[in-house]
Amino acid sequence: MFKKITFVLLVLVLLLTTTTVAFADKPTGFDEAGNVTGSAADNGFDEFGYNRTARIFSGTGWSWCMEKVGSATWCENYLGSYANDKIVMKWNAEWDRGNAENWAHPPYNAEENNIWNGHGEGGSGENWLYKIVWVGPCGTDGTPLDSGGYCLWGQFAVILSQGTAGGEHIWETLAKPAGYGAYYTNP
């Protein structure tokens, strides 16, 4: 009998412990170093498509642009036929740290990927996958890099870019190596 009561109590303690953890508020804010801080009961996706706790964006070109820029005219001119494309972006904690520091305290082991799907209603009809890493100063956008990638935003490299357009598969960029970890500079 003692064993049964002990077993039941143990199960109850485990259930209460895991329930408490599962229903705990999740972090939603970031400090200057990009570390997650703060908490809120609802930390899912915002109205634009960002879930900053999970480091994922799931929305459209339009929702991404309006959150970043906020100007309908600018977004229309910039996105053109890609405005209604579905986008999934994922990034790591180093990307958050770089953004928090305005990329002023390198080096960074920052990585992110973008998947654009334009085959939905009103989309561009194209699909694209991009893998992007921080590499430090690399020149102007499009500058070819020794790895086979190209420079983007002055200090990032596109190490993989491939997609479909006009019914054709296009390998735009495949750096060697094409894995994120090969570009890490922080131990």
Please give a structural write-up.
This protein is an alpha+beta fold and 187 residues long. It has two domains: 1-42, no CATH class; 44-183, no CATH class. It is 24% helix and 28% strand. The protein has helices at residues 2-22, 61-68, 72-79, 93-100; strands spanning 29-30, 36-37, 50-51, 56-60, 86-91, 111-117, 127-134, 150-152, 156-165, 168-174. Strands 3, 4, 5, 6, 7, 8, 9 and 10 form an eight-stranded antiparallel beta sheet that branches. The chain has a two-stranded antiparallel ribbon with strand order 1-2. Strand 9 and strand 10 form a beta hairpin. The longest helix has 21 residues, at 2-22. It is globular, with a radius of gyration of 21 Å.
The description of the largest β-sheet is: 8 strands, antiparallel
Strand pairing plus helix content: what structural class? alpha+beta
The global form is: globular
SS field, number of helical segments? 4
Instruction: Give the low-confidence spans.
Output: 4-26
Chart the SSEs and their pairings.
Layout: H1 2-22, E1 29-30, E2 36-37, E3 50-51, E4 56-60, H2 61-68, H3 72-79, E5 86-91, H4 93-100, E6 111-117, E7 127-134, E8 150-152, E9 156-165, E10 168-174
Antiparallel strand pairs: 1-2, 3-4, 4-5, 5-6, 6-7, 7-9, 8-9, 9-10
Helix pairs in contact: 2-3
